[in-house]
Amino acid sequence: MALFDLERVVDRLDFLDPAAGQLQKLISQRIAAGGPVAQRVKDGLNGTWLGHPLHPALTDVPIGAWTGSTLLDLLDHGRGEGLGHAADLLVGIGCASGLAAAASGVADWHDTYGAERRTGFVHGLLNGAALGLLGSSLLLRVAGRRRGARPFALLGYGLATFAAFFGGDMVFRMGTQVNRNAWAKGPEDWTEVAADEEVKDGALLRRRAGDAEIVLTRVGARLVAVGAVCPHAGGPMDEGKVEDGRIACPWHGSNFELSTGAVCQGPASMALPIFETRVTATGQVEVRIPPR
Ligand code: FES
Fold first, then answer.
1. Claim to verify: residue 22 and residue 127 sit in the same structural domain
2. In testing the pocket of ligand 1, which one of 108, 247, 254 has its CB within 8 Å of the most ligand atoms?
3. Does 255 lie in the same domain as 116?
């Protein structure tokens, strides 16, 4: 069976849903119990401070370290202690960075549903097993039993590589954590979108501007236009809330500054597009993307 058939088998593993749902609920409860500090930790793991999802950047470290340790383990036979020590070190680096990658992956997975959640769950279970095997290998190495440690490391590395397929499937097939505004930029020239009187203070009005969906609102005297599609997973921003100069997504609660589009709270890690606005002499609102 080709791997691209396998991914569709995983899509249909709905018997995983109760366990996955329970785990998400538990994580939500922990975040709620931990208050703003826990929310900031989750935001940090989502990559809000980086302007980019953190998980894909972190996963390179354990995969790279374990690739190195596997090669050194294979080369080590009878070639001296140096290669073996280097392999031990790389297994340790891979395990430590693997824990950080797992934490960021759980933070991203927490806000998924349906087939995406199932695939993420399988990805996490396989990676958890891989981390367990490589952790066991590390303990055996520390105990001076490198020969016995190698099969654990090899198996763990194979499992982590297999698990990576499902991570890639989530991004490239399902679009998990892909910026939903990557292709729709909006008009470069001033474009009429509404009558000025239609835009009310604190209310959200959805309109189309060129190839982009936008939301218009008024904050005091200021007319504001931002993207109508949440960059995190495509939530409808016109169904969100405006409060304290920010707009909140109705789906997972990401918060963005209305003046700059910057992320104030995740899980979104990328900014909400903003548009320049003006009102014509005939009372029409026009928007355009800010000139570079
Ligand atoms: S779609 Fe997830 S926070 Fe908006």
1. yes
2. 254
3. no
Mean pLDDT over all residues of the chain?
93
Domain that includes residue 46, residue range? 3-172
Q: What is the largest CA-CA distance in the chain?
A: 85
Ligand 1 residue neighbourhood (C-beta within 6 Å)? 111, 230, 232-235, 249, 251-252, 254, 267-268
Asked if 126 and 163 count as a contact pair (C-beta separation under 8 A), the reply is: yes
> For 12-21, how does the pLDDT look when each residue is reduced to its tens digit (9 = 90+)?
888 999 999 9
Contact 68, 90 (CB under 8 A): yes
Atom of ligand 1 nearest to the CA of 235: 1
Domains identified in the chain, total number: 2
pLDDT for 80:
63
Residue 185 domain flag: no
| pLDDT value of position 76 | 81
Cβ atoms within 10 A of the Cβ of 40, count?
15
Which pTM does this prediction carry? 0.87
